[in-house]
Amino acid sequence: MAAVARGLLVLAAVLVAVTMGARGLSPVPDLALVLVVAWALLRGPLVGAAAGLATGWLVDLVPPGPTHLGVTALVYAAAGFVAGRTRVEGPVAAPRVALVALGAAVLVESVAVVGALAVSAPVDLADLALRCLLTATVAAVVVRLVVGAERGLVRRRYG
């Protein structure tokens, strides 16, 4: 049941981000990546990579998806793995969460930049930098909520 709830949460994050982009809001924080970072910091690199892979597949499938199916999934998996490697026991301070999320966002966006440069497409670096900073800022708030909810579920389930 918890896996279904996590999947619905990721779907909601992806749909909210796509809707915000369709409404003309730019740049939009990567809400799906925020959830990947939260689960990676809570459970470690393997769960972070698995969550990143599943989330990346969902991001690939939601229109407007990328031209190469699966690349986003691999990049999110790498970002989840790297974020999970920074896991520490106990509570994590908001600045640390923001720094980890910033690193994950830079990793995801740098692959998009390399892909755009490979086909000579224009790249707006200011927009990408602002998107990374917005993702890190949202993560500083949301990750604590997601981790608290996950820990509450574990406490309730196992006593």
Shape, principal axes of CA atoms: globular
Q: How large a portion of the residues is in β-strands, by DSSP E? A: under 5%
The total count of strands amounts to: 0
Structural class: mainly alpha
Radius of gyration: 15 Å
Kindly, what is the distance between the CA atoms of the first and last residues, rounded to a whole number of angstroms? Answer: 17 Å
Proportion in helices: over 70%
Mean pLDDT level: 90
Number of helices: 6
Largest sheet: none
The parts where pLDDT drops under 50 for at least 5 residues are: none
The helix-strand sequence is HHHHHH
Short description:
The protein is an all-alpha fold and 159 residues long. The protein has helices spanning 2-22, 31-43, 45-61, 71-85, 94-118, 125-158.
Name a few traits of the molecule:
mainly alpha, globular, 0% strand, 159 residues
